[in-house]
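From: lab user (bench 3)
To: helpdesk
Subject: output format question, protein + PMT

Hello, I'm new to running complex predictions and I'm not sure whether the block I got back is the full result or only part of it. Here's what I submitted:
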Amino acid sequence: MTGETRVLLVVAGGIAAYKALELIRRLREQSIRVRCILTRSGAEFVTPLSLSALTEDKVYGELFSLTDEAEMGHIQLSRDADLMVVAPATADLIAKMAQGHADDLASTTLLATDKEILIAPAMNVRMWDHPATQANIATLQERGVALVGPNEGDMACGEFGYGRMAEPHEIVAAVLSALGREPRSTAGGGPLAGRSALITSGPTHEAIDPVRYIANRSSGKQGHAIARALSGLGAKTTLVTGPTQLQDPSGMDVIHIESAQQMLAACENALPADIAVCAAAVADWRVASQSNRKIKKTGSDGIDSGVPKLELTPNPDILASLSQRGNDRPGLVVGFAAETEDVIRQATQKRARKACDWIVANDVSPESGTFGGADNTVHVIDAQGVDSWARMDKSDVAQRLAERIADHFNGGLTAPAPAPL
Ligand code: PMT
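Helpdesk reply: Thanks, we reran it on our side. This is the complete output you should expect:
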């Protein structure tokens, strides 16, 4: 493996190991050569033959293989790569890495390497949440190991939560970032290579006083997933996010804000951009005069001051403001419409009122579970009409929306993402 970017991929034993096949294919699309180490338990989920066919290389498995040690050796195996990637990274392999174990080829090579390591954890939510795993992750991060995911979602074990391995396109974005390669400058290009995208996500917090604020139930899942999907297609991405519990996606600029006014300023700062997607749930109002001291329930005389009257004032409308800019208006402005009734009609009116190009309508009535949930049912409305999509995971909504955006810029010529293997 000489003269090109090389990744040494460790495939450990977890149900997500099947995604390693798509990961290899996507890495190779980016002109990255991949060589694999398959752990003994990994081989229970994917065969060396499939990995070998996709990498067009030998797959390594045994530490005490006389031929391998004579030909290359575990030290040489890691030295020969530009980056080590572990996907899926199981709880067990993560623990071994944190403890410095070296009892098989994967752990020995990870200990012997002098290269950067990126891990994509995949495990049951309780295993992920366990203090032992969290301590191991913290140890690895302190040592400079990079992390992509895990994502939140339904798991093969039937439970729900964090622990699902990041999607192959997210891992590719993290690999490119770790290698210091801009996704847009990849040899494969990506359908949005050379484009820039600005995404808003999450809620805003509008301070009432130093301890209280007005907020909403947005988790940021939908907006963050869109940022990851656009970045995965090669767009240079800026994510402007309100306060969420989510990890920052890798491979993009992430700007943290609290209020709508700060979000507007951050968006204006991020211009020019080719694409703007406003998925944030921006508070429509803030208190007219924010108190810089905690509002007390009693006066200095100890007498109840009564319920304070909060006067509200409108916040700036970020979507409308981006849509109505002059020379630096993004070429495509996509808004969201969160409705509880008459979804398509209300959203169509909103699109016209705010002057955005597309609006993605979603039902946010309590029974829909859209706010904070893992899935979404959306209708994409543009000047041509309404495109209604089946209910799907928010990351799939994001991927499909990103591909639609790429089609818009490429005149409908964007190849669909590789089908899952
Ligand atoms: O974050 P999740 O838990 O994953 O939930 C996703 C979501 C429901 C928040 C998301 O899919 C969504 O619908 N986002 C838009 C929420 C919203 O504020 O909708 P709206 O109909 O009130 O606003 C319409 C559009 O104007 C939105 O693009 C919004 O970002 C934008 N807006 C609204 C008010 C404002 N002051 N500035 C804005 O830019």
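A quick orientation on your result: The two ends are 26 Å apart (CA to CA). Let us know if anything else is unclear.
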